[in-house]
Write a structure and sequence with these properties.
By secondary structure, the chain is α+β, with helices and mostly antiparallel strands. The chain has eight helices and 18 strands. Strand 1, helix 2 and strand 2 form a beta-alpha-beta unit. It starts with a helix and ends with a strand.
Amino acid sequence: MKRYLSLLLFVFLAATSCGPATKVASSGSGKQTHIIGFYNLENLFDTYHDEGKNDYEYLPDGANQWTEEKYAKKLSNMARVIAAMKADNGVWHTVLGVSEIENRHVLEDLVAEPAIAEANFQIVHYDGPDRRGVDVGLLYDPSKFTLLDSESIPFTFEGSDIDFEMTKEEQDNFRTRDVLMVHGLIGGEHFAFYVCHLPSRLGGKGQDLRARGGEIIYNHAEEMMKKYPGIKIAVMGDMNDNPTDASMAVYLRGKETIDEMGEDDFFSPFLSMIKAGYSSLYYRGESNIYDCILVNYNLAKAAEGSWQIKPIIKGKYYGRIFTKPFMTNQTGQYKGTPFRTFSNGAFVGGYSDHYPTYIVIQR
């Protein structure tokens, strides 16, 4: 009964949070607008083996019988979601971070999909150490964002005061996704975007590892803010944690409101949204928002006339969880939850087990 009521609440909120009443790019204010978003693409693998990676289940003769036809359907579905966000907003994303992608090749195939090819998205990607071969990446519109440099930040244990459950030997053998940092200019102002996919919750563990991920990002962001005074920063990713968890609330210093921020804090827009019952995915039957975006003080409390995050839902929420009926199970056991690619081991031709999220900046 509890789960049924939770699902009813989710369906109601999804219906009421599909987006602003008008396109954010045509509000009549004359302000310039950029969409900054994140999307977990749920195992976007090609059909070829990557040497040294455990991608065998996503091969034609693997457990998922991952054929060219299934891969083409997956690409088309991902492009359809990105195009639907453009239709709602009136503009393509300026920056879209992505996770659970196998390699650069799958991103090249994605940006060439007819539904989004006109966006001319460019790619930032590094091959990472994850044993399954899944990485993070970033798509950007080169007409709006000028790429200056980027970096793949490894997950390490050195220099942390966190009390880790792993032994030193286990730490030495641990492999997870790197954090991607992309630095560039929007309208002449410096921005840094961090894209991450923090360690898994499998086995009910990893809280200390996700806390370390937040610590790594925060420390690097601090260095960027020293190097480029006034730089505006957005941290995005599949955190495998809610905004209320330590990785974001403590180690990334995520605050629920802009008013309570200090200069060393981050604003966490989805913190108030999860408290209000919004969700970007279900994990073990529970509603969560793992797909988060946080912004630093310079972007949250920007001076008039410079880029600043803006509310986009009901005049008070600064984040959007993008849902449409075609992305959501409409019937059956999983009604009201994201329509994913596989269900109970069978290919069902859905989209992702996560909904995409985004913020809007204007000046």
